[in-house]
């Protein structure tokens, strides 16, 4: 499709990312899935091509890419390896609270190393008892002099334990509900910060998902983001932006599964002809391609709304994430069906794609939460 919002430079970058993904990332994908280890080589690859610099403004060492270009980059990487696509998506997620609410000093301190890829970022909102109900958190921060002391834990944190820079949400005023939550930048080596359980997951296996523990963790007051009590809104505004990235990841997975199914159907011969000559297979491929294209339109549209500064983008961000992740589940499932017995085997990537796709319906807000966000926006619009 035409992507009018992407500059000539960004078009060249996306083209380069597509090549890198196909030549360097795709051959590593099965191994990353099998080993379950964070692919440091892929992180280095993205860093060396300035791909991790995309979400950061030029004045802080980034390349200030458009939202659309970032989405297309996540898509191209995830088409080959969803774990590698997530490295870029989470670099943006973990840094977004600083981008939205950080002051100049905080951006100067943290963005250059995040943009160069020397440091990874993580976003710490979820807790064992606080998933969809993000406001139900039980991590507390108490100010004493020039420090906050954090106590509590965060669960299911992508890049947990690997990230140097963690944006963490904690209660500073227990009486004030969502207005009593504040956001902090917590460095990995701050005293009282440690890493707990590392999760064993169904998919995106190379991405590390960990528990973060705060035991009298000392955070300097200058690491408060925005003002006290602004944390919940910072978290919500962050997710409004970054859910598009999960939509892009899902879109990439779906496109990868479609590519595989089309190629297989053309070469697999049964009853003396390629199975692609059967209408039963053709109809499946047509449905898969239509879902991929519809997901792409929503992901790109939501990205363009961000780039245009359109305030309606939150609703479209949730729509893009919800639709693309559902499409990814359908398309990867159908890809396995087209490949038949081979699709079920680990020898082919279809089953990995389905396992990777599943998380996109869950993280950064389940698709049920996305429906809630969409419905709330719809019902509060004027003229509705
Ligand atoms: N932007 C700005 N402010 C917002 C907002 C938004 N998008 N959404 C809500 N707010 C404000 C409200 O206006 C309200 O402000 P006031 O106090 O001024 O009235 C305040 O925040 C509280 O809002 P709600 O009453 O709507 O809050 P709620 O408790 O009903 O929760 C929710 C809303 C949408 C369900 C929210 O809890 C939510 O998004 N839950 C899902 C959490 C989630 O997505 N977690 C993902 C974790 S990260 C992850 O998964 C990353 C990974 O692994 C890669």
Automatic annotation (TrEMBL):
Sequence ranges assigned to domain Acyl-CoA oxidase/dehydrogenase middle in this UniProt record: 122-217
Designated name of the protein: Acyl-CoA dehydrogenase domain protein
Organism from which the protein derives: Ktedonobacter racemifer DSM 44963
Catalytic class of the enzyme: oxidoreductase
Keyword Oxidoreductase on entry: yes
Molecular functions per Gene Ontology: flavin adenine dinucleotide binding; short-chain fatty acyl-CoA dehydrogenase activity
Family of this protein: Belongs to the acyl-CoA dehydrogenase family.
Keyword line: FAD, Flavoprotein, Oxidoreductase
